[in-house]
Structure formats: structure tokens, C-alpha cells
Amino acid sequence: MIVYGVALFSACLLIGLIAGDALGALIGVKANVGGVGISMLLLIVLAERFKNELNLESASGRGIGFWSAMYIPVVVAMAAQQNVLAAVSSGAVAILAGSGAVILSFALIPLINKMNKKS
């Protein structure tokens, strides 16, 4: 049932947001630091664990798969709430970090393609 997917999705999101707030408080930042990423990783790990225990052809497995796929648009929507203008106007570090991540991601594409061809 899709309800199991919603329950897993909700639990991962809540745990991730709490962990992100705790991490932010730990490093002295008044913001959620990595909560969405933590919840995404937790959802991936738990979905894989349940995939082995549940029959993915069942309604429960399809519900978990559906909400795992829906997580990407949720992350995009949450990232859209960030104040990009304030980050860019505060200095060049934000621009360099973002550009560096994009360039590194593009540079890794050929390596990933070579790894897929070998296997």
C-alpha cells in the first residue's frame, strides 16, 4: 500500500530535519545543515532494506518505490526555498563552491560511463 511509502518517507524526513537542526546547533549555525540530505540517504538505505524483505511487486513495495521516486521533486522544492541571492551577495565562496561542484560532477561522467561499460 502507498501508505507504507508515505510512512517511510515521513519518518525519514522528520529524522533528517531533526538531525540537520542538531548538526547546525552543534557547529553554531542557526540553520538546518544537511537535514534534507540526511533524510534522503536514510530513505535510500531503508528502501533498499525493505526491498529485500518485501516483495516489490506487492502494493507495499510499489508504495515505497513511489515515494522514493517522489523524494527528488521534494528536495528540489526545498532547495528552491534557499536564499540564493543572499548567498551570492555574501561573497565569491558560494559561487566557487557551486561552480566547483558542477564542474566536478561533469568531470566524473566519463569515469562513471567507463565503470558501467566494464560491468
From TrEMBL:
Keyword Transmembrane among record annotations: yes
Signal sequence, renumbered to the chain: none
Residues annotated as transmembrane: 29-47, 59-80, 92-112
GO cellular component: membrane
Organism whose genome encodes this protein: Candidatus Glassbacteria bacterium RIFCSPLOWO2_12_FULL_58_11
Keywords: Membrane, Transmembrane, Transmembrane helix
Xref: InterPro entries: Maln_transptMadL
Name this protein carries in UniProt: Malonate transporter subunit MadL
UniProt key word Transmembrane: yes
